[in-house]
């Protein structure tokens, strides 16, 4: 559920710390080992964990879908079951997508990205050509490729 609280201006560093104390680390500044520690200690679906601002600050629905597609991870993958290679890939995809977004000043889209296809009636994966799946996950409309992002085993 969206919980937008508005805009808050801090008068000084102490007030800034108070305003930000409940947020996780900034997504763009998180290191690989830090992301592994943050996600490895949780037993949640990956998309829900990444969108939780208490876990990692700054990621929204479109960004998370793009990051997970680039990392080839299913949005319902259990965070506790991700291996080191998957976590390293996730961290790399996270940085790549966020840096591209920072350069553009918006969520990156285009024909080589999942994000740019969300509104198409018969959207297909830019990599595999498979029809993208769409479902509510973590309370948000989620898109993913069934070929690139297979359902986690054991589900």
Walk me through what this model shows:
It is a single chain. The two termini are about 25 Å apart. The mean pLDDT is about 90. The protein has about 160 residues and is mainly alpha-helical. Helix 2 (about 30-40) crosses helix 5 (about 85-105) and helix 4 (about 60-70) crosses helix 5. The chain has a two-stranded antiparallel sheet with strand order 1-2. It has helices spanning about 15-20, 30-40, 45-50, 60-70, 85-105; strands at about 135, 140-145. The longest helix has 21 residues, at about 85-105. It has five helices and two strands; from the N terminus they run αααααββ. The radius of gyration is 16 Å and the shape is globular. It has a single domain, classed as Helicase, Ruva Protein, domain 3, CATH 1.10.8. A hairpin with a 2-residue loop joins strand 1 (about 135) and strand 2 (about 140-145).
Portion in helices: 25-40%
CATH architecture: Orthogonal Bundle
CATH class: Mainly Alpha
Spatial strand sequence of the major β-sheet: 1-2
Shape: globular
CATH topology: Helicase, Ruva Protein, domain 3
Intertermini distance: 24 Å
Biggest beta-sheet profile: 2 strands, antiparallel
* Helix/sheet category: mainly alpha
Oligomeric assembly? single chain
Topology (elements, then pairings):
Blueprint: H1 13-20, H2 32-40, H3 46-51, H4 61-71, H5 84-104, E1 133-137, E2 140-144
Antiparallel strand pairs: 1-2
Helix pairs in contact: 2-5, 4-5
Brief overview:
The chain has 155 residues and is mainly alpha-helical. It contains five helices and two strands; from the N terminus they run H-H-H-H-H-E-E.
């Amino acid at each position: 559920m969206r919980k937008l609280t508005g805009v808050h201006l801090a008068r000084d560093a102490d007030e800034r710390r108070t305003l930000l104390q409940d947020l996780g680390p900034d997504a763009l500044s998180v290191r690989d080992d830090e992301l592994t520690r943050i996600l490895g200690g949780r037993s949640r679906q990956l998309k829900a964990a990444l969108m939780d601002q208490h876990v990692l600050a700054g990621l929204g629905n479109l960004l998370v879908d793009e990051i997970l597609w680039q990392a080839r991870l299913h949005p319902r993958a259990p965070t506790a079951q991700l291996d080191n290679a998957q976590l390293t890939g996730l961290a790399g995809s996270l940085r790549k997508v966020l840096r591209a977004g920072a350069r553009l000043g918006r969520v990156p889209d285009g024909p080589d990205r999942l994000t740019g296809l969300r509104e198409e009636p018969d959207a297909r994966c830019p990599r595999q050509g498979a029809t993208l799946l769409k479902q509510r996950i973590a309370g948000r409309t989620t898109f993913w490729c069934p070929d690139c992002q297979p359902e986690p085993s054991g589900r």
